[in-house]
Amino acid sequence: MPRHIPRRVFLGGAASAVSFLNRNATVAANPVSTPVATKPSGWIDAHVHVWTPDLERYPIDTSRYTAKAMKPASFTPQQLMEECQPSGVGRVVLIQMSFYNTDNSYMLDMIKKHPGIFSGVGIVDHRAADLVTRIKQLAAAGVRGFRISSGGKHASEWLSDPGMASLWETAARSGLNVCPLINPAEFSVINQLCEKYPDTPVVIDHFGRVGISGEILPGELDALCRLARHRNVHVKTSAFYALGKKQPPYKDLLPMLRRVIDAFSPRRLMWASDCPFQVQGKHSYASSIALIRDHLMPLSETDRNLILHDTAERVFFTTV
Predict the structure, then answer these.
(1) Omega before 249 cis (within 30°)?
(2) Nearest CA to 270 among 278, 260, 259?
(3) ∠ CA 249-252-257 to the nearest 5 degrees?
(4) What CA–CA distance (Å, rounded) separates 24 from 42?
(5) CA angle centred on 29, ends 25 and 31, rounded to 5°
(6) Cβ 122 vs Cβ 143: under 8 Å
């Protein structure tokens, strides 16, 4: 069973977490134009979901979810910082939570409330008539990417979908990222889209879910690594709790990590926790970052910094 997200003391507890957010908010003007010298220090977590129990102000998509589906019931930026601050994480890429569907309001409000701390990946309806306008509005509010998922349908439909074409083309023109949440069976679709739109930056979530079955299948890992031939494809080394043996300290994932490093280089890899799911039950935030920081050997300090900071900063915290 998922454990309750802790509100216990971490370096001073919740008050310290709030202080951390407020202190950095006074240092950085906004997440995309602040000089590097004045940005918050620390590692960057490239994939976190936040949500609030305030369903009156931030309603969820009740056609798909009920309040009972929100487990935990709350995961706010303050609760997030209780988890990530002790591990030295200073900035976070917020991923729009599916509870809210295409209403990105909560994520946008958190980006605005804590300038310099958060960047965002939003969700849009790629078939909407005002898609391009909406993308520009979200980009102006701090969104640097757009998540796509087949949602149980066939991802092959993306290849002939005019709205998806518009999304990929607009992202390329705007320097924004398309962020596929996919399974290994869909790598061939992403390969074709990357061939069709070679200038579109792509960030694949969670190793493309290689290993979600409990086993790292060589054919699936090979297919992921073949995507490295597309110069604009990046991969998140993330969601360790859900891959392979799914047992901390996750050292069974080290061979896969080394393989993707060889294929993509650290310049196209970024670490992420996938909180709050990474901090449930036997899993912890510290064990996630430790796999890259402490156990991925040999790895130079430069390459470690790329995976834990530099790549995410370049991809999600730079000026469009």
Answers:
(1) yes
(2) 260
(3) 100
(4) 11
(5) 85
(6) yes
**Is the Cβ–Cβ distance between 157 and 61 less than 8 Å?**
no
Short-list 46, 122, 50, CA closest to 79: 50
Output 244 or 27, whichever has higher pLDDT: 244
List the domain boundaries for the chain: 13-316
CA distance 161 to 154: 12
- Compute the chain's Rg from CA coordinates: 18
Whether 237 has a pLDDT exceeding 70, the answer reads: yes
d(CA 139, CA 143): 5
Cα 219 to Cα 184: distance, rounded to the nearest angstrom: 9
- pLDDT tens by residue, 195-226: 999 999 999 999 999 999 999 999 999 999 99
CATH number of 13-316: 3.20.20.140
Q: Report which DSSP code applies to 264.
A: H
Give ∠ CA 28-305-310 in degrees, rounded to 5.
45
- 56 burial via Cβ count (<10 Å: 0-12, 13-18, 19+): exposed
Residue 308 has pLDDT above 60, yes or no: yes
Concatenated DSSP letters of 183-241: -GGGHHHHHHHHHH-TTS-EEEGGGGGTTTTSS--HHHHHHHHHGGGSTTEEEEE--GG
Integer Cα distance of 81 and 113 in angstroms: 14
Give DSSP secondary structure letters for 45-93.
EEEE--B-S-TTTS---TTT--GGG-SSS-B-HHHHHHHHGGGTEEEEE
**pLDDT for 22:** 55
At 13 the three-state DSSP class reads: helix
